Amino acid sequence: MKQKQWRAFLFLCMVAVALILAACDSDSGNNGSEMVGDSSSSAECTNTYGTNTVMDCRDGQTYRTATIGTQTWMAENLNYAVDSSWCYESSADSCAKYGRLYQWAGAMGLSVTYNSTSATGVISTSQQGVCPAGWHIPTDAEWVTLENTVGGEDVAGTVLKSMSGWDEGGNGTDTYGFSALPAGHRDGYGGFGSVGRYARFWAVTEVDTLRAYNLYLYYDDAYMGTSSDGKLIAFSVRCLKDAE
To answer: How many domains is the chain partitioned into structurally?
Structure first.
């Protein structure tokens, strides 16, 4: 009798251990240490290209593209849903118009821990991040190349801004088809602001452990500038096509 009870006890112990291991495995995708997004899906599918368009095979969304000098850019803000990204004021209509707002680490396809830790050593100059396969998050230098191609920082804001949507008549000429929209931001405390007033786009380049570069365009200025802001702030993403 004692032997049967001992076997039953061992069996229950084995079941308990198996349940604990299964629970740990099911939580591993959301514990903050994994890559965000679905990198495997981008490796298994193929984007579809049309005339000045690309369809992201991960979710079927189609984006306009614009070739400016030697660079080919998405002419719309990325709207691929991952952790640490939001629609402005949680509105699906805002995502459809402006794309999503991404914290820096989320945009880079990294764990949220890299919003407060240096990503040196785990990030590349052609960081795909949340972009489709064959595209990447621009470096600060690649943004400067765009700026110089369209005539320099003093006029870049005017020629890259869309022809509508900016506050107080601050629309641009959209000379190159880049169609920058004033999507605003989400701050590190969850508040949204500045839609209609400015566009800010992340660069892959870090300033330090807490900050990274971004490019900005304002409704009341022809200027295009570079800023360094906290990685916890969520800005727009524009993807740049990999060099062929």
So the answer is: 2
